[in-house]
Amino acid sequence: MSEPEKRRRSSDSLFSTDFQRIKRLPPYVFATVNALKMEARRRGEDIIDLGMGNPDQGTPQHIIDKLCEAAQDPRNHRYSQSRGIPGLRKAVCAFYKRKFNVDLDPETEALVTIGSKEGLASLATAITNPGDAILTPNPAYPIHPYGFIIAGADIRHVPVHKDLDYFEELTKAVRDCWPQPKVLLVNFPSNPTAQVVDLSFYEKVVDFAREHGIIVVSDVAYAEITFDDYEAPSILQVPGAMDVAVEFYSLSKTYNMPGWRIGFCVGNPEIIGAIAKIKSYLDYGAFQPIQIAATHALNGPQDCVREIREMYQSRRDVLVDGLGRAGWEVDRPKATMFVWAEIPDKYKPMGSLEFVKFLLKEAKVAVSPGIGFGEYGDEFVRIALVENEHRIRQAYRAIRKVL
């Protein structure tokens, strides 16, 4: 037996691997698809990857220039602030005033996060007690339910579907839930379903939350990626929302900055304070030059945001029209960088994961299985608009051949 094998055997016997939080997490479905993609590429196959929502364009140059400038200052290489630098928090509040006409206090009602995923996880850690009931959408972006599951909560799923009244499903979930839900998470424009709402929806949610004493967590990461004259509202526009709600936003998609890991949370000062206290133990904030560049992104010229929005709208139209010509009719989303496509009836018995494997093998096109976002997503796949129009045309032509 080799020395490494001896060491492994010895260490295996020293402790129990009864990691309860890990056991509460299911196998990561997307890892299966990613492994198949890598195998295909190692075989030399050209895979058109429309799976992960990972922008293919670079960050606007003026933001990169500010990062480089800030990185030259040695003072910016020291520890930063876990709550975010004051200038960025002020820029966040100015953005909310400009976009939503919402007034915020940068000292008590705004907090910088290392991307929205970290922020949501820190929120769950800050406000969740073991066994708390949390209402999350299904299908959902995985951090929405699993951030709370990792924190020890019990999840109650609220179905999201174009043919369902979401608020009606929400009231049913609260009526049938014991103990009383502590948190309601809403995500519009939605990842993965691209569903949108208007301000009247949030008005009902705020009234409902105040009546039942529920904290509302809103995720509006795609508030700027909207099409066809649709404008995404903020829950904080509703009078009284600050009493019950916080809202997360990310610069990842708005400014093509996913790898920079920068976002923020705004809203109820008590909840913001709780997240800030947790973060003070966990991190020193994002690298300060990134925060300075993010400040410049929010305060600087916004032509780049319009250009990014128009690019995704054009790609959406190319994909939806092309799939329609291929006999696969899908809804045209009003927001996000995704198309939530119902699987053709002939292939629904396969389930979304097997259908994705089928498209990968036969059409050389990778998309995301709906089951990865929750059981109610298994008749759908999510298609990300992260390739140029030429590649998208290649994708739908290949799909047309196999369908």
What topology does this entry show?
Elements: H1 3-12, H2 20-23, H3 29-42, E1 48-49, H4 61-71, H5 86-100, E2 110-113, H6 115-127, E3 133-138, H7 143-150, E4 154-159, H8 166-175, E5 183-187, H9 199-212, E6 215-219, E7 245-250, E8 263-267, H10 269-282, H11 288-299, H12 303-325, E9 338-342, H13 352-362, E10 365-366, E11 368-369, E12 380-384, H14 389-402
Parallel strand pairs: 1-10, 3-4, 3-5, 5-6, 6-7
Antiparallel strand pairs: 2-8, 7-8, 9-12, 11-12
Rg from Cα: 22 Å
Sheet with the most strands, sense and barrel status: 7 strands, mixed
Total strands: the figure is: 12
Based on secondary structure, the structural category is alpha/beta
**CATH level-1 class of the largest domain:** Alpha Beta
Distance between the termini: 53 Å
From N to C, what is the helix and strand string? HHHEHHEHEHEHEHEEEHHHEHEEEH
CATH topology of the largest domain: Aspartate Aminotransferase, domain 2
Q: CATH superfamily of the largest domain, called what? A: Type I PLP-dependent aspartate aminotransferase-like (Major domain)
* CATH architecture label of the largest domain: 3-Layer(aba) Sandwich
- Unreliable stretches: none
What is the total number of structural domains? 2
Overall mean pLDDT stands at 92
Q: How many helix segments? A: 14
| Order of the strands making up the biggest sheet | 2-8-7-6-5-3-4
Strand content: 5-15%
Percent of residues in helices: 40-55%
The best one-word shape is globular
